[in-house]
Amino acid sequence: MKTTSSFLLLSTLLGGLLFSYIFWDKWLGLNQLIYSIFIITVTFLNSEVAKSNKFKIYASAHLLAAVLVVVNNSVLTSVSYNISLLFFVGFAHYQAVRTIYVAAMATTLQFITVPATLIKRLSELKIGKFDLKPVFKPIKYILLPLFIIFVFAAIYSGANQIFAHYLETTFTGIYNFFNNIFGFIFQDLSLPRFMHFCFGLFLTAALTITFYNKGIEKLEAGCKEKLQRVRRDKKTRSLWFQVVHTFTGQIITKKMALKTEYIIGLISFISLNLLLLCVNLIDISTLWLGYKPEGNFSSDLHDGTNALIFSIILAMAVILYFFRGNLNFYYKSKTLKSLAIAWMVQNFILIISVFIRDGYYIEFYGLTHKRIGVLVFAILCIIGLSTVYLKVTKEKTLFYLFKVNGNIWFVLLLAFSLVNWDVFITRYNLSHSDRVAVDAGYLLSLSDKTLPLLDQNRAKLHYTPVKDLFGKQIVKPKETTFYSELLNERIGYFKERYQNVSWLSWNLQDWNTAKYFGVNQQ
Q: InterPro entries annotated for this entry (predicted)?
């Protein structure tokens, strides 16, 4: 343990120095991959961490996300990088955890407990025959009171201006005292750079040192994936039950008999099936079998899509409510399950309508991030409904749903990060400019990686009316020279930025753009 503590503390120091060197005053790119390799290596060499398949899977996933930051360099890759880092650290240090949500909570716990973890590790060190434990033992009596005093001092400062003035004067005096004594030592040291180094120490410690209390694993251990019939204890009442009962009496808190709950579910699902059948028949006749845009076309598609997605999410919530417990084992539940499955099938039809609506939107207006987002959300709804179907037919728990869907969402996040969406959108809209309205203003708002494509298609960067839409206009006309000048400004800004970028901020997309415009990096 003491050898491990020495290794982790040394790694934390090296991690802080590395963090300060590769991230200070740098753009994000290759430096993120370097830091990830360092964190994965330290965790792999940590003897306290088991090198299980789970460790290898999430380490590989995070490494892929770090590589994608260098290759695609987009907001989505940055998001997938940070999320995959949370999951990797959580699953590496707490391998009994089964869901990505608890893994993220475990990583958050490590961030919160960094001071206590560092003190514990430092107390385990020995310098020769000198034991550091007696030195750090009194700190635990000081640390919590100091934190409490700091919190309440901040609160009282906000409540009382005179107290805030005296507190500020006190801290200023303490700062000047230490500055006069040690200022000459650190006169060449940048305080912001030093704070950046301290943040690197804190971050590295949180990502590499396991919090010694693993109670979060025990917390999740009680969650089951298979539903079991449970007898209700009428005598045992929770605090929440007592609070609700105080205000509502027996209107809400009275437990429904299983037969009553079955009848309510039966009426609900029959009604919902009939209601959704009407909506689907209307969509099939008016949307699927020949659609002619008229009136406020954009608003109809946009509002209709939002409403349908919300209804699908609500549908899954209703199904989960009725099949949350003992109703799954009721002898007449087969009829209810059949109705629920029929409603799920109808919701699949509803998702097809969402795809068709979004397809028309893209056909007339071109691609945007939001329209792609609708397609992605529809795919997630399909996955959600599929797992809800498994939950109902296989009698699974809500925990099972969270576990399976969480893993699928994470895989999809990495999969979608493989695509360079800004370039994909720009290339699609410009290549289909003969039949979609080119919103030049939107294309010029995308990232620098699209600049070569825009420069090659300058002639298309002008106002284009919507084709085959009865002359309806969606963007305000601008002269071609306006967009050309705006593109020149973007290119000039990129050249200026790229010439001052360090090799640590290198990424493939910026490199390709710089190569196209003949810009050299310092």
A: DUF4153
